[in-house]
Structure formats: structure tokens, C-alpha cells
Amino acid sequence: MVSVLGRAGPPQPRRARRLLFAFTLSLSCTYLCYSLLCCCDDLGQSRLLGAPRCLRGPGAGGRKLLPKSRPCEPPGPAPSAPSAPSTPSAPAAAAAAAPAPRLGPSNHSGSPKLGTKRLPQALIVGVKKGGTRAVLEFIRVHPDVRALGTEPHFFDRNYGRGLDWYRSLMPRTLDSQITLEKTPSYFVTQEAPRRIFNMSRDTKLIVVVRNPVTRAISDYTQTLSKKPDIPTFEGLSFRNRTLGEVDVSWNAIRIGLYALHLESWLRYFPLAQIHFVSGERLITDPAGEMARVQDFLGVKRFITDKHFYFNKTKGFPCLKKPESSLLPRCLGKSKGRTHVQIDPDVIDQLREFYRPYNIKFYETVGQDFRWE
């Protein structure tokens, strides 16, 4: 008995240290496994239920811990080719699991979230050399109006491209904003009223009109600057000047027959949906004319006298310098040209020719533009 007890005596110190190390290592491994099983959701909150049974990091002594558990897979799509496993640090793993930040709506003009591209609710449809560019530039100051800067010519030249193409040209607008575009040739295009009506019967139409004789001279002056070899204004205006026969086939003369062109529009749109801007008053009282435009569009009167100053060199009003610019906003060099000199007798003949058309136009729209 004594010899047996002697052989089974207390363990040697080296063996005791090994047992203590094994016990400590077992506790450490158990804690590590428990921590790894508690995966984190997207908000960084620990959860036990539904957590993937996976392991990260090597086991003690180079052996795998819990060999029956599957390895963790990285978030997102699987890589195209296998790569050597790595052990990311805790901050890196948390960053990989965190969702990408979402960009909210912004009012910055460069943001892709700035509203939606919509078909225009309002159009400046005419007339050429009447002041349409001025109206467009003035109304673009309004925060509730977004306007296309170029003329798309959709309803006269590009209608075959379709409404989706037309919509793609428009600026992005918020729900509270109005989309607007300008193409002055619409007013004299026979098919334009029907095509616009088919897009939306609620479209608001703006027509900028001007004394048809002055408008024709301005039109000719612009053409002459591009084609210096064209015939004289007198030669293009009359078939027979002696008999007073005006050539209405010349586009510069034909555009000024406002009453005739308006008939096509009134077949599709009520007069209440068409607003007429006086090109003359737009020069002498830009704030007053723009106040009426804003009322017609249904937006608050934001554009007032404080936005304008009269440019004596150009001979028409310009927008004052905005805070974001070093220079005032005036129309380009192509605007405000000095008109060519026309024989006063020719002007008188054309005034007499336009008189009955002007009177009919006044009566139809209920405004006297005082062109006589």
C-alpha cells in the first residue's frame, strides 16, 4: 500500500504548471469562441440569435477552433478568384460591415438629387425678335422657375425624337418649381399648338410681342449681320412698292401678322392660358411686365425693381450683379444692335399694312399695345 501511494503521490511541479496552463488556455479559447459567435448587425449592436456560426483568427497552437463551424464570408459579392485568407483588425472589420452612407437631397446645382426632369409646364412660344430672351433671363432669377437656356425646337423641328428625348433636355426641378423652355418659332409653326396640346392641355403659354414694323427691321438687321449680301429691306418687304403690295411670304413680314397666328392657338388653348408680354414695356418697365408674368405662372412676385438697372449703351434693362457674380447680367452682343436705317416712307407703308391686323389682335387679346 505504501509503495502504491508512493508512486501515486502529489504531481510534480512541472506537471502542475502544464495543467494550469491548459486550464487557462481552455478558458481563453471558450471566451474567444463566445465573442466570435456574437456577430454584429449593421448598427453595431450585438446579437446572439441569427448570428452566423463562424470563426475569425487562428486557433491555439496553429489548430482550428471548432472545426465544424464554417468560415466567415466577407460582405458583398464573392471575389472572382480565391485569395489568401487575412485577419482584419476589429476597426477594419467594423468598417467593412458598416453600410455605405446615403446621399440625401441637396439644393446644390451640381447634385444629381436636385429634383426630377419633367416636361415643361410653361413655354415661351414667341415671337422672334420680340424680347423672348430677355423674358427668359429675367424669369430665371426666380427661385421657383427652372428654365432651359437653349432653344430645343422640339415642336417644330425635332418632334420626331419623341417626348422622352424632349424631357431629357430639361433641367431638374423640385415639386415646388416650374419647368420652362423658350423657342420663339413655335408661334408661327402651324403644327405646334396641336403638338403642345397633346403633351399637356394645361400648358401655360407666353407670347412676347412687339411693334411688327420694328420687329421686322430688327429681324432684318440680325440676318444682315450674318449675310451681308442679302437684298435691301425695301426690296424684301414689297412685291410692288409703287402699288403698296407687301410680300407676306417673307418671314420677317409674316411673323408680324399676330392675329392670324393666334387663331391657330385658340383652337386648342383658351385665351386665359396665353399671356402676352409687351416688348416695348419690357424695356421701359421691366419690373411691371415681369410682375404680370409671375402672376400668370402662379409664383410669388420675387423679381422686382431692385433686380434691374438700365444699360444706356445697349438701350435696354439688365439684371443687377448677383451676389455670386462679379459682373451684372446683360444680354449678349447679339442683342441691342443698332438697326439699319430704313426709308421713313417704307415704314409708313408697312404701318398701314399692319394696322388692320394689329386692331384685330388688340380686340382678340383685350389689350391695346399702341403700335400706331
TrEMBL record:
Task: Report biased composition (Pro residues) as residue ranges.
Answer: 72-82
Q: Which InterPro entries match?
A: NST/OST, P-loop_NTPase, Sulfotransferase_dom
Q: Which Pfam families match?
A: Sulfotransfer_1
Q: Compositional bias (Low complexity) at which positions?
A: 83-101
Q: Which domain of life is it from?
A: Eukaryota
Where are the stretches annotated Disordered? 65-115
- Quick check: keyword Transferase in the entry? yes
State the top-level EC class: transferase
Q: Which SUPFAM superfamilies match?
A: P-loop containing nucleoside triphosphate hydrolases
Q: Which UniProt keywords apply?
A: Glycoprotein, Transferase
Q: Where is the Sulfotransferase domain?
A: 120-355
Q: What does the record give as EC number?
A: 2.8.2.-
UniProt record similarity statement: Belongs to the sulfotransferase 1 family.
| Protein name from the UniProt record | Sulfotransferase
Native source organism of the sequence: Echinops telfairi (Lesser hedgehog tenrec)
Gene label: HS3ST2
